[in-house]
Amino acid sequence: MRVSTGRASQSDSRMFTVVVDGYGVGKQRRAERQITVPFAQLQSLIQTIARRGGRIKAINESLVAEVLFEAPSPTAPESAPAPAPAAQAAPTNPAAMHHANVPVNLYKPKAPFVGTVIENYSLLAEGAIGRVNHITFDLAGGDPQLHYVEGQSIGIIPDGADSNGKPHKLRLYSIASTRHGDNMADDTVSLCVRQLQYEKEGQTIYGVCSTFLCDIEPGAKVKITGPVGKEMLLPADEEANVIMLATGTGIAPMRAYLRRMFEPTEREKNSWHFRGKAWLFMGSPTTANLLYDDDLNRYLSEFPENFRYTKAISREQNNAKGGRMYIQDRVLEHADEIFAMIEDSRTHVYMCGLRGMEPGIDDAMTAAASSKGLDWSQLRPQLKKAERWHVETY
Ligand SMILES: Cc1cc2nc3c(=O)[nH]c(=O)nc-3n(C[C@H](O)[C@H](O)[C@H](O)COP(=O)(O)OP(=O)(O)OC[C@H]3O[C@@H](n4cnc5c(N)ncnc54)[C@H](O)[C@@H]3O)c2cc1C
Question: Please, are residues 216 and 135 in contact by the beta-carbon 8 Å criterion?
């Protein structure tokens, strides 16, 4: 067994990833698994694995650290840090534990919750391109109560029928509010919706559901399903670092994260006091199209040590080559700092927006990694496996 626990003098707040096979139930038992636990739970995890016949292959302080730096030379298992006494029951993967209480599919398409529109307003400034609205629904009175956590999505079933006369299918939208809702009453949900509009054979086509939502009036009833999604959940660790890469309405989950981190009312109510670094890269065609910009600037002035906000305004700014400034250009510009953050096992990266943003980010990360002698195609799956690389594009 190879054990790399880093510097023995570090505090107990370290996290360790145990690589194990033959442990778990069903398919899990046949596959190699990686279980990440805080230092305090390491000893009892090792004991549980041994009791259940699993085979520990390695214990690493950080999987990604191994890719970024030379793996430390093999050490005997007994040189693992003297762990705290096992005071708890069988330990579980904190990520899995964190996901276990997340609500999913409380309302399904056959029996959706019917919410009421509370408000619907444009998020764009004068001169912006297109139409993007912030829409809030009242969720009160559901049985069960429709609740959710930051990073999830809900489904909306627009009124009316499709060209075959059948009811429209649901469309998913990332939730832009925290679990408490914009009014902190725990019974609303907000979305950030861009009206889909494109040209086809000389005609302007408008998206069915996005138009339905952008046009909807306060008081109207709307069929809502969900919540769904566990890909974009925030880490529970108050000292985690969170890098966010968003374009357009991809800001929706990031707005929820940032409210949870920096809104005074949220911090008070959650008793979750974010102390890590949050860095938002925001891509937008024009300044007038920036979404929630005033709130983000307020967080910047109130939490300068914890929040950083880097904008790529494609039609107003130029990249180093004189072309349009896209989010991937900003990623490249800050590659050293981003990679320094990723070396820290507490750093998570979140990407959200149109699917088209992915190749650009991938190219930027590939170039940035190779400038440090690293292979992004190897590193990215490692980050994904460690549940630190979160992508939701559409
Ligand atoms: C997990 C998830 C989260 C999402 N979050 C958000 C969000 O926060 N905000 C948001 O606004 N949207 C979000 N979306 C997208 C949303 O679900 C809808 O897809 C979007 O609003 C369009 O739906 P619509 O009914 O308006 O369009 P539709 O009427 O369903 O039209 C869409 C169809 O139009 C066609 N089409 C689209 N563009 C073109 C084009 N340029 N040329 C030719 N044909 C075209 C395609 O066939 C496409 O399938 C999310 C999607 C997912 C999967």
Answer: yes
Q: What amino acid occupies position 113? A: F
352 is catalytic: yes
Which listed residue (173, 292, 326, 350) is catalytic? 173
Cβ-based neighbours of 325, under 8 Å, separated by 6 or more: 312, 313, 314, 316, 317, 318, 319
Is residue 214 part of the annotated active site? The answer reads: no
Q: What is the pLDDT of residue 60?
A: 75
Whether residue 196 has its Cβ less than 6 Å from ligand 1 = yes
pTM of the model: 0.80
Q: Mark whether 248 and 389 lie in a shared domain.
A: yes
Where residue 196 sits, what CATH number does that domain have?
A: 2.40.30.10
C-alpha of residue 196 to centroid of ligand 1, in Å:
6
For ligand 1, whether the C-beta of 153 sits within 6 Å is: yes
Q: Tell me, yes or no, whether 90 and 171 share the same domain.
A: no
Total domain count for the chain?
Answer: 3
**pLDDT < 50: residue spans in the chain:** 1-11, 62-92
Contact 193 CB / ligand 1 (< 6 Å)? yes
Q: Residue 226 has what pLDDT?
A: 97
